Batch of 2 targets.
Target 1
Amino acid sequence: MEPLSPQPIESAESSNSSTSEAVKPGNEPDLHIPDSPDSRDTVCMATMTYQGLEVLFSRQQIAERVTEMGAQITNDLNGEKLVMIGVLKGAAPFLADLSRAIQVDATFDFVATTSYGKGQRSSGAVKLIKDLDHSIEGKNVLVVEDILDTGLTLSYLRKLFLQQHPKSLRIATLLDKPSRRIEKIEADYVGFSIPNLFVIGYGMDYAERYRNLPDICVMPPGDPE
Ligand code: IMP
């Protein structure tokens, strides 16, 4: 299936309050747990609310797309075993959901690289700060990433993993920002292709915050760094 284009939807929160009050540098949205069942109802059954953020992909849209990706990956594996390698920290929720949508015998491993530090800008340099726990020689490997942006991280990881001679090496990314690419690399499985927006939620952060938002939201521009 072709990657989907983003369909911005209005959150319950933004339909009641102006998004022109969206986040400004140094004025990030506050998260709070609703304190009554009534307030929970007003945010589409969310367990957490967030103010002034545009929802790019709702949890339902994410769940549906992840299920489709899992079915496609299952089909491509033809019953063979899989090692899923999550790129920490952002890919953790995606790996957890995708793995449960894949119907083969799968194991997990994780790597961590340096990424965007505290802001929305990349330093350009990629460094491995956590290596694989187990060899992937002769294995079917699926690298699971939250977002493919410049391509620097996945190009670096792909080269690194290929040195171990896996049987196969494929890449699944939930989001893809093709217009930002610096290194020539494409994922084998893409959830959604998006324009040049900085997004948060469902594992993705801004200065380590917002990873636990259940929906993927747009972080307004204006980096305090
Ligand atoms: P790349 O090396 O530029 O492809 O970046 C990959 C990493 O950058 C991702 O795994 C994210 O950690 C981070 N990143 C890129 N774009 C975004 C974004 O819009 N929101 C949050 N993190 C991002």
Note: Residues 59-77 form the longest helix (19 residues).
Target 2
Amino acid sequence: MSSFTYHQFVYGSDNYGVLVHDPVTGQTAAIDAGDGAAYKAALADKGWDLSHVFITHHHDDHTEGLADLVAGVDVEVLGPKGDKPGHAGITTHLCNGDHFVFAGARVEVMETPGHTLDMLNFYLPSEEVCFTGDTLFAMGCGRVFEGDYPMMWNSLSKLMSALPEQTVIYCSHEYTEANVAFALSVDPENSALIARAKTVAELRSRNEPTIPTTMAEELATNPFLRASDKDIRAFLSLQTASDAEVFSEIRSRKDNF
Ligand code: ZN
Ligand code: FE
């Protein structure tokens, strides 16, 4: 049973920010801080006071507004360690397996490197919510910039084993329309995917978000989580390959799609 209130908003061209608010303690966490003005406007809109920021990774579109957002307020900023510009302002450094308490709820920290080497995902088991940053998207996964394909496959496998199907997934970008087009190119007979493509087209035609998603939906439709699926393997002529090899083929096709 969720006890927190979630507010998702758009910034930049396709980024999502999320505020997590506990009505009992009044504490509010921001997921990332890519745009100080957009986050402050979202806080003002809801009438919430910021107490925490959870940083997923160092990229500018997730960190550029941090200094502006926390200026003059008493905020704990939790995130990865590192010496990139985006790491400036993080006050509590986290690594894999760490946990902390936000407004009475346990937050489990998972490192999911691949897109970047510093990527953290934040899982709140009591809320059945996970913030996957640029690791897991709706029907997609992050482009692999700093790690390699097997590393990204490991990270996605970690999410698949840690997160129950009902887990609500908040990710950081509205890439779903492009992702579903690609997904259909490698998994064209998947009826759940075909149905979801229609839902996505309807939502986007009204400029509505396709995020959050759920682990169950992703397991059924996200080709990057479906490396063991026999239809995808047959489609790619990779029946005897390892899951990591199938994932790598799918990821490289997406890079060139
Ligand atoms: Zn990124
Ligand atoms: Fe990003």
Note: Residues 165 and 216 are 4 Å apart (CA to CA).
